[in-house]
Amino acid sequence: MKNLLFTLLAVSCIQITSVFGQIDIEKVEGRCHGIAHDQRLLFGVSEFKFAAASGSHQVGSGLTDMLSNALVECGCFSVVERSRMDDLMDELSLGMDGTVSSKSAAQVGNLLGAQYLVMGTITEFAENESGGGAIGLLKKVGAGVGLTQAHVGLIIKVVEVETGQVILSKSIDKKVKKLGLIGGQGMLGLALAGAYKSKAMEDAIEEAIIETVSYFVAEKGIFNRADSGKPNAVRSETESTCPALLDGSSPTIMVVIPEVHIARRIPDPAGETEIIRKFAEKGFRVVDPTQIESIRSAEEFSKSIGDPAYARNLGLRFGADIIITGEAFSQLAGNKGNMFSCRARVEARAIDTKTGRIIAADGKHAAGADIAEFVAAKSALRNAGSELADYFLAKICEDATLASTGGNTVSSITLEILLQNANFMQVSELEKFLQKDESFSNISKTFQNNAGRFNLTGNKTSDQLAEFIMSTFQNFQLEITALDNSKVILVAL
Description:
Rossmann fold; 18 strands; 3 domains; alpha/beta
């Protein structure tokens, strides 16, 4: 009896000193040595989400601390301080139904300077006890002896902060059976009272954390490859991935997407800028946004957002083969402390200026967080713009019509000119004038009731055609009385 009691007390002493959060780092395979902290990859570890059917939600906090400590102790990684991480993750969830997407979570990592963000979910956390008598001292604290099977299940994801993409994901499942003390929380002195009651669970937790860290160490080459491309390098699509870029050419893209944040117009639209950046990186020619600054407040500009015909003419005016036009808006979702969370939506359509055909149309929404509301709004708009850019890139590269021309589209538009209060000679003089300009073709004319009607094809928009006639034609005086997307009405004076 004394020997049994001594053995049980020895086991209990082991468990008393096994505080939740300590693991044997020597068991991690492939640990790094001699790497300075400022040379290590920087991780942020968000608190584990508890999704198991049973157990305490406090387990999430404990496992987060264990993983953070183990990542640092393995010598390969540095970890953002826990309190800063928790505050930002909590604030980011404002206005997002309590959930945080990988792309939104990357916002937090970006604010903290982290390169990667670790997100974990506890899917299993259970202890099944069997047997168990209690004697002497152990009875006083409610402890007993028995066989315990512990089960821990985790899902671990690693998000690359710069892209918001999940670059690693792994499921970990650990089951451990152990004969020893069960219960007796007062004697075990666990850091999280009630979190678990057995050495079996402690071992299962340790094995799960060790496997997680060992996996990160084994796959650290992926982190290095992902990090080697920073800052973003300009990459071009090839003919095989985007036929619209045949022969080293490409369609010229024009992007016009004004933004509003809570009824206040935003200068230098972030969503528009992000779409332009992505198209330029893929190798497309893009109209410089500074060229259209002078017309952003004009009626023509606002009409192009809702009217494809106006958008087509606007694109032709600036030499674009494709115009992407739409609108974007953002609003405050919530704030906590000094942190603001914003939601944004960017919606647009891509129009082929040669035919007026709508190539694609869609809208995307996203979130952003920052200590400044305006910056948070910009971030949300940029994230939504990035997703929309990927959509348009895919659609344009898939478009067989654009691919067949290698992007070298010859933009043309059919227009009508109506010359009123004119005699036949005046109508004929205007016809000869138009025929001399090689930019016009397929010119047809009719004359009736002192009015001449012309139909022609060219590369000028209706306003460009009107300006061309008024500045160049000198045979007799003219006045413009009406103008729309496809028609110019003149009066002979």
